[in-house]
Amino acid sequence: MTQTNRRADAWTDLDKQGAGPRAQKISGGQLLIAALLGVSALVSLAYAGVSIDIAATLAYEKPKQVLTTPASLGLDYRDVSFPAREDHVLIRGWFIPGVLSTGKLTADRAVIVVHGRAKNRADPQDGILELSGTFARRGFAVLAFDMRGMGESPPAPDSLGFFEQRDVLGAVDFLRSGPPPYPPLSRPRIVGGWGVSMGATSLILAAAREPAVRAVVADSTPADVLPLLEREIPRQGHVPPAFTPGALLMAHLLYGIDYAAVRPVDAVGRLAPRPLFLIDGTADTYTGRSSLALLTTSARRGSGAEVTSWLVPKATHAQDFRTAPVEYVRRVMGFFETALGPDLSPGAGP
Fold this sequence. Notes:
This protein is an alpha/beta fold and about 350 residues long. The chain is about 45% helix and about 15% strand. The protein has an eight-stranded mixed beta sheet with strand order 1-2-6-5-7-8-9-10, with helices on both faces. A hairpin with a 6-residue loop joins strand 1 and strand 2.
């Protein structure tokens, strides 16, 4: 064997001796990386799974049944349905004609009544039907309806106003076009709106886009929905705050909801110069009196703004009417009497 061959064999032997440990070391590193990747994938899947579950819980809640009608108050009414604007979800509700002091029915002035989240047009806790009846007995026709996914309206994601504003816009379209909602009477001449909690949010967002809504009462309205969710998702879902961004992302990906766009504080200034009445309670820990202050300040920046606000002593969220019913009716009815003017239907009288 030549000298050159002996050197080549020596290097080959050295390579064989070193290959085992080096290969074992690389294999161990790869296993560690693979394990870390596996754990990361499992954590990501778990995070996504929890986020999807939170988003689904946030977007869908079992609707509450409508258990009574305006007939329980001795009022005439019609069952009605109409498509939401843009996506045409079928919305179901009641049209209740106003009753003048003479006993004559009227539809000259109409108020759209918009209930809160996870409620319906007859909700007893917030007094929706009771207040609708009060409007009617004061001579205002009422269009009270179940927002999408609630009451008797079809299932749909609860978006805290992002989609529900379309239901309000559909209500405006229904009152202003097509066959009269109460055939013996003509269509309303002028339209206002009253909303509470999420209903108030939806109403403000809709009225900012639709000038046909001539006056608005917004009760217990959050100035901005996103901070509310950032607080409430961990509290009500019993999960760490780290899951909130994932839940909001899943709500957007799965249901198309952009909660960050639900900001009444940005929209409220566009209602001017139409009259606006903002109401909240001193004991409202859900939206808080800070929301009322923010909304009032923002609304007054509008050109020719006509803004009234009222902080109801001791009232919790959406319970202003229940807490001070006599004063509530006096102020709200007085607001609409001034904002919408007198009934001008034939035979209405002075």
